[in-house]
Amino acid sequence: MKVAIAGAGAVGRSIARELLVNAHEVTLFERDAGHIDTDAVAGAEWVLADACELANLENAQLQTYDVMIAATGDDKANLVVSLLAKTEFAVNRVVARVNDPRNEWLFGEDWGVDVAVSTPRLLASLVEEAVSVGDLVRLMTFRQGQANLVELTLPSNTPLAGKPVRKLELPRDAALVAILRGGRVIVPQRDDPIEGGDELIFIAPVEAEPALYEAMQIVR
Q: Which residues form the RCK N-terminal domain (predicted)?
């Protein structure tokens, strides 16, 4: 996969390293020459340019990339990069960093954003996840709230224990995408049993969340 990252600060570099480990092709855009350090992210291509400038993206042939990640520390810049990537170059997947949670409402389809990642919100979600058993915790929002990645940790005495995945009565449009059990990540199959203490990861629209909570608490 070919990925462009706007912003080569600590966040952008960390993302680039992870992608390179997984054998993706990565290009980092950075407008500050002082932040260019090719040794810091070995294997990435570096471009000294402002990703908010249309001409710079044209020179880099952004239309040939699969993903654009707007990872600067400036929300305005991330919105501009996202909009250009989607509307001018038809990049299939645009991921944007939200620095100020108050701006999160802007990071949606109107600005070309497919996935918005708010670090403060994500950290808050992880804290909630650590202390919440039997409650739905939103981990990430897609397309400005049209769907959410949510987690539910089952209590040890859940009545669902031993029930196979195929018999879970999930609401329409909700999908179980992963089961976290101990140190394992399980891609759920139809006959896999549910166990007490499982962390269940779902993708579901907001309106399905109450029914999803009910389905995970009640055996019919």
A: 1-117
Which residue matches tokens 């101990």? 182
5-25 pLDDT, tens digit per residue, is: 999 988 888 889 888 988 899
Q: What angle do CA 43, 98, 132 make, to 5 degrees?
A: 105
Contacts of residue 101, Cβ cutoff 8 Å, sequence gap at least 6: 118, 120, 121
Pull the structure tokens for residue 31.
Answer: 């407008």
Tell me the CA distances in angstroms from 88 to 20, 57, 112, 140, 219, one per residue in order: 26, 9, 10, 26, 50
Residue 162: other Cβ atoms inside 10 A: 10
End-to-end, the C-alpha distance of the chain in Å comes to 44
List of E strands, the chain = 2-6, 25-30, 45-48, 67-70, 93-98, 115-118, 136-142, 147-153, 175-181, 184-186, 199-204
Q: What is the CATH number of domain 132-217?
A: 3.30.70.1450
Q: Where are the domains of the chain?
A: 2-117, 132-217
Q: Which CATH number fits domain 2-117: 3.40.50.720, 3.40.50.1980, 1.20.58.220, 3.40.50.1820?
A: 3.40.50.720
